[in-house]
């Protein structure tokens, strides 16, 4: 579940009265997601998503995230635009927490993509990179390979072994990824968390890209590597779907060709992408009480993916 905060009907009505969107009809908490509280809000004029920012988001970054939604949406990407309140503000505060109202987009998240769907996800990711290139906002990636290494070192080998006997093996791996991380590849604003649950689809078409709250400036090929790792395996990372991986990269390259250097870097970028999710999931695993109303995500799902890339990355991206 992801409704961390209960909002009364009066609070919601009062909030909606600050926007030019009609009157509140209903607000339903959305179970999906783990970081923020989300409600599907219906007013007398339309449907919206109301997000309350709860965890991992520095409120100072909100103008970057919300401005990016409007920038990409204005360029024709399937990205929700933000609804500004009657004073022109893209976010408001409720009891010390920031909230934003954004456009509701149709579509469903896909668990088992077809190659055609994966192709279209790859293509829209490349369009996103091209469209974001002139976005004036700046935000550095604070979840790069040095952070992954630091997080795992802070947890320590003993705590890692308590989660899984194989997890401590990720410490030397994280060191080598951080040491060899490429630096001179093309950059833009990247989504950096384009998992299936952050893509809405209608049939084969991508109808929505959501959850830009890890977006930052970084290497575009790294974003493709994150997306490849998130889409091309079954749920627990035990089996690789080569048709999906190829379709994703083919779709990306139908819009933006990878350079020779980007292609050569894909194996380490894919390992680094896995390490980023191993480290955040490990940290959450340790920090989240077992009785919390949030389902913890297993870091081992991405250890298996990383091991796959370690063994097969060179041929896979050749
Ligand atoms: N603009 C949108 N249009 C339609 N549904 C949305 C939109 N934004 C979020 N959702 C729904 O809310 C859920 C959680 O949103 P998300 O931004 O992924 O939350 P979290 O940051 O907590 O992971 C999504 O899985 C989707 O069902
Ligand atoms: N995609 C990440 C988790 C990030 O959480 P989100 O709900 O904000 O997308 C993972 O799978 O570890």
Description:
- The chain has 318 residues and is α+β, with helices and mostly antiparallel strands.
- The strands form 3 sheets. Strands 1, 2, 3, 4, 5 and 6 form a 6-stranded antiparallel beta sheet that branches. Strands 7-10 form a two-stranded antiparallel ribbon. Strands 8-9 form a two-stranded antiparallel sheet.
- Strand 8 and strand 9 form a beta hairpin.
- It has 2 domains: 95 residues, 2-Layer Sandwich (Phosphorylase Kinase, domain 1); 202 residues, Alpha-Beta Complex (Aminoglycoside 3'-phosphotransferase, Chain: A, domain 2), CATH 3.90.1200.
- The chain is built from 9 helices and 10 strands.
- The structure holds adenosine-5'-diphosphate and the ligand N[C@@H](CCOP(=O)(O)O)C(=O)O.
- Adenosine-5'-diphosphate (ADP) binds next to strand 6.
- It is an enzyme of class 2 (transferase).
- This is Homoserine kinase.
- InterPro entries: Aminoglycoside_PTrfase, Homoserine_kinase_II, Kinase-like_dom_sf, Pseudomonas-type_ThrB.
How many structural domains can be distinguished in the coordinates?
2
- Give the end-to-end Cα distance, rounded to a whole number of Å: 41 Å
- What is the overall shape? globular
> In sequence order, what are the helices and strands, one letter per element?
HEEEHEEEHHHEEEEHHHH
According to CATH, the fold-level topology of the largest domain is Aminoglycoside 3'-phosphotransferase, Chain: A, domain 2
* Annotation, overall tally of beta strands: 10
Bound molecules: adenosine-5'-diphosphate, ligand LJ64HWYM
How much of the sequence is in beta strands?
15-25%
- The pLDDT mean sits at 95
Total helix count? 9
The stretches of 5 or more residues where confidence is low (pLDDT under 50) are none
CATH architecture annotation name of the largest domain: Alpha-Beta Complex
InterPro entries: Aminoglycoside_PTrfase, Homoserine_kinase_II, Kinase-like_dom_sf, Pseudomonas-type_ThrB
Protein name: Homoserine kinase
Organism: Aurantiacibacter sediminis
Pathway: Amino-acid biosynthesis; L-threonine biosynthesis; L-threonine from L-aspartate: step 4/5
């Amino acid at each position: 579940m992801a409704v961390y905060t209960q909002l009364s009907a009066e609070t919601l009505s009062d909030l909606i009265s600050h926007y030019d969107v009609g009157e509140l009809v209903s607000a339903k908490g959305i179970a999906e997601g783990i970081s923020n509280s989300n409600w599907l809000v219906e007013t007398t004029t339309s449907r919206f998503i109301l997000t309350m920012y709860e965890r991992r988001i520095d409120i100072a970054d909100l103008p970057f995230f919300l401005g990016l939604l409007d920038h990409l949406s204005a360029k024709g990407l399937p990205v929700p635009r933000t609804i500004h309140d009657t004073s022109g503000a893209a976010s408001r505060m409720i009891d010390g927490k920031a909230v934003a109202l954004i456009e509701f987009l149709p579509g469903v998240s896909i668990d088992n993509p077809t190659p055609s769907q994966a192709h279209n996800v790859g293509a829209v990711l490349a369009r996103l990179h091209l469209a974001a290139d002139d976005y004036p906002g700046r935000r550095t990636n604070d979840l790069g390979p040095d952070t992954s290494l630091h997080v795992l070192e802070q947890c320590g080998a003993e705590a890692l072994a308590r989660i899984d006997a194989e997890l401590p093996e990720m410490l030397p791996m994280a060191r080598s990824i951080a040491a060899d991380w490429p630096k001179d590849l093309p950059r833009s604003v990247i989504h950096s968390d384009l998992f299936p649950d952050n893509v809405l689809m209608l049939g084969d078409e991508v109808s929505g890209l959501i959850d830009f709250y890890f977006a930052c400036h970084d290497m575009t090929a790294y974003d493709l590597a994150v997306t490849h790792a998130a889409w091309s395996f079954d749920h627990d990372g035990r089996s690789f779907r080569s048709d999906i991986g190829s379709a994703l990269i083919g779709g990306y390259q139908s819009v933006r060709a990878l350079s020779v250097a980007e292609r050569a870097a894909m194996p380490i970028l894919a390992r680094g992408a896995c390490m980023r999710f191993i480290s955040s999931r490990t940290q959450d695993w340790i920090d989240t009480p077992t009785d919390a109303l949030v389902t913890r995500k297993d870091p081992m799902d991405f250890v298996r993916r990383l091991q796959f890339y370690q063994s097969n990355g060179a041929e896979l991206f050749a």
